[in-house]
Design goal:
single chain; about 400 residues; mainly alpha; Fic-like fold; Arc Repressor Mutant, subunit A; 2 domains; three-stranded antiparallel beta sheet; two-stranded antiparallel ribbon
C-alpha cells in the first residue's frame, strides 16, 4: 500500500497501519550542527540588519507598509488553501469596510476575505500586547481566538488548546493514512510549556532559535485549526519581541508560499527523521531572501512616498495633502466616501483632490460610481510595488 504525501511522492505504508503521533523533542533539540549553519546565520543576520535599517528610515511604517501587511495576511492564508487576492481584500474593504453585513459573509469568497482580515486584526492585537508584556502561550491563544472569529474554523474551539486528536490528511482520509499525526492531547501542555521556556531562553543565535520555535509550534499543532497561520505570525512577533527588528513588519509568507513543497518537506523531515538541520538551513535561507525582498519593497515604497510629497502639493495646492497621501498609502484601493471619512478631509475638498489626482495619473478609476455608489479608486503604483517579485 502506498500513500501520497504533500510532495506528491509515494511512500510505503502497511494497510491500516496507524502512524504514531509525533512526540516533541525537548528544546533545544540535540544534534544542531552549528558550524554547518554559520554562513547562512551570517547572511540572514546581515540581511535582517539591512532591512531594519530601512524600517528605521520610515517615520510611520504602520501606514506606509500597510499594503505589505495585508499582502502577508493574504499569502499566509493562501498557503492554507484560500484564493482571495490582495486586490479582493482591498476592494472589499473599499466597498463595505470591515463591518460588512452578516448575510454576505456566508459567500465563500467573502469568508476567505474575512480570514485575511482576521489575520491582520490578530497581528495588530499582538503588537499591542507586546508593548506591555512578553509573548506567551496564553497570548497565542488570544490571537487564535481573533483569527477564527466568524470564519471557517469558528466551531473548532477558537483560543483553546485541543482536547482531541487531530491529524493532517486530504479530506475524508482516515487517520491510518494520515500524512502527519501531531502529539496526543495529554502531551500538549508539557510540550507547550517547554516551548515557552525555550522562547524566553538565550540561544547561541536567535534566528536558529526562531527556526526551532516556529517548526516545533507547527509540529505540536496545539489547535484544531489555524496552526500554520499562527506559526507564520510568530516569525515577525518573535523577531520584534527579541528586538532583532525595531517594528514587527517582516513578511515571510511570500517565500514560504513560493516554496510550499519544500516548506512542508522540511517540517515532515523533522517529525520523521529528526532532521532539524535541513529545516534550519531552509528557514535561514527564507529569512535571508525575504529580508532582501522586503528591503527592496520598503525602499521603493519610501521613494514613492517622497515623490508623492512633491507631486501631490504641486497638483492640488491643498492644505490637506499629508492626510491625502497617508490615506492612499494606508489603503490604496478606496472609494471617495470612505476616503473623506478616514482622512478627515471635507467632502468638497476630497472631490476636487481626487479628480485632480486622477487627471494627473496618480490615481486610476477601478470602478466608476453610479447612482448612490461612489467611484472606487486605485493607487496602482503602490499595488505594483507590493506585488513585485511575487508569483
Amino acid at each position: 500500500m502506498f500513500i501520497t504525501n504533500v510532495l506528491g511522492q509515494s511512500v510505503p505504508r502497511q494497510e491500516n497501519e496507524p502512524m504514531e503521533p509525533y512526540t516533541p523533542e525537548k528544546l533545544p533539540p540535540k544534534g544542531i550542527y552549528w558550524e554547518q549553519h554559520v554562513p547562512l546565520i551570517g547572511s540572514a543576520n546581515r540581511s535582517l540588519a539591512r532591512y531594519d535599517g530601512v524600517l528605521l528610515g520610515i517615520i510611520n511604517p504602520q501606514v506606509l507598509l500597510s499594503p505589505l501587511a495585508t499582502h502577508e495576511a493574504v499569502l499566509s492564508s493562501r498557503i492554507e488553501g484560500t484564493q482571495a487576492s490582495l486586490e479582493d481584500v482591498l476592494e472589499y474593504e473599499a466597498e463595505l469596510g470591515e463591518k460588512a453585513e452578516e448575510d454576505i459573509r456566508d459567500r465563500p469568497q467573502i469568508q476567505e476575505i474575512h480570514e485575511v482580515i482576521n489575520y491582520r486584526k490578530a497581528m495588530r492585537a499582538a503588537v499591542g500586547y507586546l508593548e506591555s508584556r512578553p509573548l506567551t502561550v496564553k497570548m497565542i491563544c488570544d490571537l487564535h481566538r481573533i483569527l477564527l472569529e466568524g470564519v471557517r474554523g469558528e466551531k473548532k474551539a477558537p483560543g483553546e488548546i485541543r482536547r482531541i486528536q487531530n491529524y493532517i490528511a486530504p479530506p475524508g482520509t482516515p487517520i491510518e493514512r494520515a500524512i502527519f499525526v501531531p502529539p496526543t492531547p495529554p502531551m500538549l501542555m508539557d510540550a507547550l510549556s517547554d516551548w515557552e521556556i525555550y522562547l524566553h531562553s538565550t540561544e547561541k543565535d536567535p534566528l536558529v532559535q526562531l527556526a526551532v520555535l516556529k517548526a516545533q509550534f507547527e509540529l505540536i499543532h496545539p489547535f484544531l485549526d489555524g496552526n500554520g497561520r499562527i506559526g507564520r505570525m510568530l516569525v515577525p512577533l518573535i523577531l520584534y519581541g527579541k528586538k532583532i527588528i525595531t517594528s514587527p513588519n517582516f513578511y515571510i509568507s511570500d517565500y514560504l508560499e513560493r516554496n510550499r513543497d519544500v516548506y512542508y518537506e522540511r517540517l515532515l523531515a523533522i517529525s520523521q527523521d529528526g532532521d532539524w538541520n535541513g529545516w534550519i538551513g531552509f528557514f535561514l535561507q527564507a529569512v535571508t531572501e525575504q529580508a532582501e525582498l522586503n528591503s527592496r519593497k520598503a525602499r521603493a515604497i519610501l521613494a514613492l512616498y517622497d515623490d508623492m510629497k512633491v507631486k501631490v502639493p504641486e497638483i492640488t495646492g491643498s492644505r490637506y495633502t499629508i492626510q491625502a497621501i497617508d490615506g492612499i498609502f494606508s489603503r490604496p484601493i478606496f472609494n471617495a466616501r470612505e476616503f473623506s471619512k478616514t482622512s478627515a478631509i471635507p467632502k468638497e475638498s476630497t472631490k476636487k483632490m481626487l479628480r485632480e489626482l486622477r487627471e494627473n495619473e496618480i490615481l486610476d478609476v477601478l470602478r466608476q460610481g453610479k447612482g448612490r455608489r461612489p467611484t472606487t479608486y486605485i493607487f496602482s503604483k503602490l499595488i505594483e510595488i507590493t506585488l513585485m517579485d511575487t508569483q
